[in-house]
Amino acid sequence: MTEDAAAPDLRASDADRERVAEILRDALAEGRLDMEEFDERLDATYKARTYGELTPITRDLPDQGAVVPAVSLTKEPARQGSWSDRIVGGDETGTSSWAVAVMSGFQRRGRWTAPRRFNCFTFWGGGEIDLRDAYFVDREVVINAVAIMGGVQVTVPPGVEVVVRGIGIMGGFDHREEGVPGDPGAPRVIVTGFAFWGVVGVERKLPRAERQRLREERRREKLFSHFKTAAANWKQAPRTTDPGPHSGPAGSLQPPFQPLRRLRSGVRGGAPGTGRVGGGGGENLPSAPYNRAGAPPFRSRGSNTSPIRANPLSLGCR
């Protein structure tokens, strides 16, 4: 707005005010302004009369079409390196090379080193072998699982090739992840063994850090969509053009409960004894009749007399 800066005393047009309001709506949708700041600046925008009053409103905001650096204000988990960083070599046994669960269970998960061959046995029990965050001694890992009336669950990360060669009698091996090609340089996991009245399952899942990152991205996208919708609804909301006694200044949002506000104002201005509560037309409320003394009439029912209970609002009380 070079012309605006050169002539700050020139009168601003409605198009200039709408241009500034559009910048404020974009800033609200992008999270640069909160609702309170947005309300204050929008009110100042529609009250501005000159370019000099409009310029400070968006001085700290990028204009439409301006290139701003992409800065992430959230701490993201460290990305996994290449597969060559996770194939460490060394001792063939790794961190653990076998596990047994008899009417119990075992787990191999987290940061551990998978050996070239891992043997496990379960009887009336269960075991979990999680390779998502594991390191590997070699590019080929063999998991030999024997499950008798028990189960073993093998979890691998995306990009790992899986081969299933087990035998099941009244049991089975899970072949759903077999046949998916692996990434270049990724390890190969071979699941073999024997299952009698048992199950050896294989599933593919993202690492926990990656799942948290994707969840955070979806949350930010959903929040940005809500801001965009709120800004669009704010832009389309009706605004007053002729200020009245019950509305704000020109250019402000039309209150959604304007008839109710006028009705309450009429109640406070009502006069007792007239049957009217202020305002006019359809804004009157029914009230109890009054006698000439100005007191509510009594009704007789045998020996019991009591005044008619009237709504305090209908009596003109505040």
From TrEMBL:
Domain of life: Bacteria
Compositional bias annotation for Gly residues: 267-283
Residue span of region Disordered: 233-318
A Pfam family: DUF1707
Residue ranges constituting the DUF1707 domain according to the UniProt record: 10-62
Listed InterPro entries: DUF1707_SHOCT-like
PANTHER family in the record: DUF1707 DOMAIN-CONTAINING PROTEIN (PTHR40763:SF4), MEMBRANE PROTEIN-RELATED (PTHR40763)
Protein name, per record: DUF1707 domain-containing protein
